[in-house]
Each structure stands twice: as structure tokens, then as C-alpha cells.
Amino acid sequence: MLFTALPIFMMIVLPGVFIFVLWRAAFKSKLEWGMDAGSTIFLIAWLFQSANWSWIGIWVRYVWIVLLAVALIMSWRKIRALPIKVAYTGSQKFSLAIYGFLMLVFGYYNVMIITSYTTKEEGIDLVFPLKEGAYYVGHGGDHVMMNYHNEYPPQKYALDILGLNGLGTRAKGFLPEELNKYAIYGDSLISPCNGTVVKSENDLVDMTPPEMDSDHPEGNHVLLICDQHPATVLLAHMQQGSVAVVEGDNVTTGQYLGKVGNSGNTSEPHLHIHAELDGEGVPIRFDGRFLVRNRVIKPGK
Hints:
Helix content is 29%, strand content 19%. It contains 4 helices and 13 strands. The two termini are 28 Å apart. The mean pLDDT is 94.
């Protein structure tokens, strides 16, 4: 989740350029307009679903939908009297080929995202482990495009949960060093099920973003087995000194476990949760819902 210039370019500059070209380009035919419009629609649809919008505000993605609709209407008014196709020059044929290529690429990306929304594998149903506030799925789903954990079999269906502030961002700033500027930092974690604690850690320091402790990947954590399923459930990156349970404790659904921190191999405060059985990730559903990136959860509402 480290900040890089590429995601911001993808979320702001790239869609802006595509929409501007669609709006201002001098098309020679409806075919040329349709190819440009199609590639722009597929691009916006892909970014709308797959980009981590908590960096700049979760509502910004809707701005692009509105601007896209405006560009489509205005550009159509300019080209509606044009023929469906004309005799194209070499450069125009090349442009059509580029549009076709972009439609194939972004169309494929959208198909992969759609496949990530569900899984046929049986999983474990849990109660969402955060009680108050607004939370955002930064990584989640059944495809690597939506969830980088998907590449690692034990964490295939892992989720990274971020908090949201009033502006719809995960923090005050892009990557502040002060932990209390992250919306989720210090929020209380509750047990997602009735079960037994099989391991816990409480003494690791909270790292200063973007520093990470790769020697202790889970950081302070609670590992438990729920009564309804043999998988182990890991809640990781908890706040130093906040973990309230130890190995062997029996816990009940809703029982306080500790607080969200920034310990372990993490670039910023968030909750990492996954279920694992025999080295394979197990799908997690919260109150029957399979969560994917860009889902917003408001417990109790």
C-alpha cells in the first residue's frame, strides 16, 4: 500500500486525458468515435472498480463517471451527422487499431475484475471485527488485480481494511508519519466469532510509516480457531500493548481483542485478516457478504 506516483497518474491524469480527447477530437466517422468512446468507457470502468480511491477520496471516482457522461453526450452531438465509416488514411487506420487494442486490454481487465466479485469455494462466515466508523476494503476479492494477496495460496482471500475520515480518505495526507492521522489507527477490534485463541503477540513496536518490520510479518496479532470452522483466522498489525487475549483463551463474538496498530510488515495502519486451512486460503464472508476492493462498511448501519 505504499504511495507511488503511478496510482495517482492512473486515477487522475489518465482518465482526464481520455475524456478530454473524446470531448475535443475531430472525428471523421461514427466508427472512429465509437472506438474512442469504447476504450474510454472501458478505462473508466476498470479504474472505477479496481483503483484504491482511499488515497484521494472515495467519491472522486464518481466525478469521472459524470464527466464521462458529459463528454459522451457532447461529442455525440458533434458527430451524429457523420457517416458510419469513411475511406481511412494510413494514420487513421493506425488510430483505429490503437483504439481497438485499448478496448481489448481494458475489456479484459474488466472481465477479470468481475470474476473477483464472487467465489464458489465454501468459506467461513464471520462478524465484521470493527464496531464503529466507516471502513474501506483496500485489498479484497478473488483476483490479483483487486487483491495482491491472491498470488499467495495461504492468504488467497485475505483482506486489508482501512478506515475512512470525513473526506473519504484513509488518512490526513498521502503517507503521513504520525500514526494518529490514519483514520483506523487505535480503533477497537472485536472477535469475529466464538472460538479459541491459538496464538497472540503483544510487544512489537508500531512502525513509523513507511518503515516496515519484515522480520515479524504479522506484527502484534491474534490467531484463533472459530467454533464453526477448522480454519485459523488471523487478525494482524495490532497496536503494541493493546492485545487483550493470550493463547488458550476462549473468546465470544464481539469480545474486545485489542486495537488496530501498525506493527509488523505493514506500510501504514490497517487491519489484515485472513483465514487459512492446510496452507490454503479460505474465503471470508462477513454477515454473508464477500468483500472486494472499494467496498465501504459501516458497522451497525
